[in-house]
Amino acid sequence: MYLPSPPAPTSPWQLLYGGAHRLRRHWYRSRARRLPRPVLSVGNLHFGGTGKTPLTAALAARLRDRGLAVCILSRGYGSRGRGVRVVSTGGGPLLGPLLAGDEPVFLAGELPGVAVVVGPDRHRAGLHALRHLEPPPALFLLDDGFSHLGLARDLDLLVFPAADPFAGGRLLPSGRLREPLRAVARASAAILTGVDPTAMAGTGEALAQALRPHGFTGPGFASLTRPGRPRRLDGTLLPSGETVFLVSAVARPEGLTAQVRQLGFPIAGELRFPDHHRYPGPSLERIATAFRASGAAALLTTAKDRVKLLGRLDLPLAEIAELPIRAEPEPAFWRWLDRELETLGLGGTR
To answer: What is the C-alpha to C-alpha distance for residues 54 and 110, in angstroms, rounded to an integer?
Structure first.
């Protein structure tokens, strides 16, 4: 597989914006605070829609299954809570998405045995976790952490979506990048998510080679993004061929639509909201009305949206279903990660 590397932007605005990012990185270089436990970061250069959250869940589960006490640190984007908040001590969500954010609550529900703590100052959040969690974390997994330069990390995993790996190579306002592509020089490894299962071979290396002109020196890997069998919120599986009405508030809703069609579920209608939408009352009424009018057998949504809709829609649980999504990195990635963990003194029990 060949991935062409986009050229560096040359417009005055792009150069100015890129310069501001260089100054920010330089300022933090000697000021980043370090936690007394290893920190692994999962992040992206894009504005959403990279498959980062399923990959974070897969990493946390793998680390937990090695016998390590894992704590996910998140800023709790979109939440109204303040300060450090313990979302889970490993037994499921203790807070709702309004106070904690949708992704932390989703991760807390998906990962028994993994702690989740949110707060804008993730160094402070990590120290809080070390003081109050039992057992104390053996390592921290920094969710959406690539641009969070205030916290030093030991491994930086940078995620790129296969559908749009380099976002045109441009920053806002004409592009979709948070930082210039040259920021990849900070990454320990690059991971292409949502790869076609028939095109896994060589894809990770192709990503790494495409990033070399921008200063990347680490390995590249590929990861599948697999949808699971839709399950109604009453616990029953959604029968194949049932007509569904889609509701989502994600960065790339077209990807969800394609996955549902590939699974063989006819779509009677769809409502798309902005990423991290909080679903206020008018949105809930609009969803219920549109679903009933569609004649669909079930309202189908994402796991991230389910945590915000559960108990708030005027619909029976049997009429609401969730489409689970999981990330499956290639075996070479896990071998590389095992070696890195050994270097950090995190052999675990396996």
So the answer is: 10
For the record, the structure tokens of 282 come out as 């008018």
The full set of domain ranges for the chain reads: 12-68+138-226+328-343, 229-323
Report CA torsion sign: 159, 163, 167, 173.
negative
Q: In 3D, which of 259, 280, 267, 253 has the Cα closest to residue 324?
A: 259
* Residue 120, preceding peptide bond in cis (omega within 30° of 0): no
Residue 27 makes CB contacts below 8 A (sequence gap 6+) with none
Q: Which two tokens stand for residue 109?
A: 């529900």
The span from the CA of 43 to the CA of 51, in Å, is 10
Specify the residue for token string 């569609």. Answer: 294
Other C-beta atoms within 10 Å of 40: how many? 25
Give the CA diameter of the chain.
59
Closest CA relative to residue 323, chosen from 298, 302, 348, 305:
302
- d(CA 214, CA 310) in angstroms, rounded, equals 44
How many other C-beta atoms are found inside a 10 Å radius of the C-beta of residue 319? 18
CATH number assigned to the domain covering 229-323: 3.40.50
CB 70, CB 141: distance < 8 Å: yes
Number of other residues whose CB lies within 10 A of the CB of residue 104: 30
pLDDT along the chain (350 residues), means of 10: 70 70 76 94 86 94 96 88 93 94 94 96 96 97 90 96 85 79 94 90 94 95 94 94 96 90 96 93 97 97 93 94 96 97 80
The angle subtended at Cα 238 by Cα 161 and Cα 242, nearest 5°, is 90
Q: How far apart are CA 136 and CA 115, in angstroms?
A: 10
pTM for this entry: 0.90
Side-by-side strand order, sheet with 298-302 = 231-232, 320-323, 298-302, 244-248, 267-272
Q: Rg of the Cα trace of the chain?
A: 20
pLDDT in tens, 100-148: 999 999 999 999 999 999 999 999 999 999 999 999 999 999 998 898 8
Give CA–CA dist 304/322, Å, rounded.
9
Here the tokens at position 251 are: 């960065």
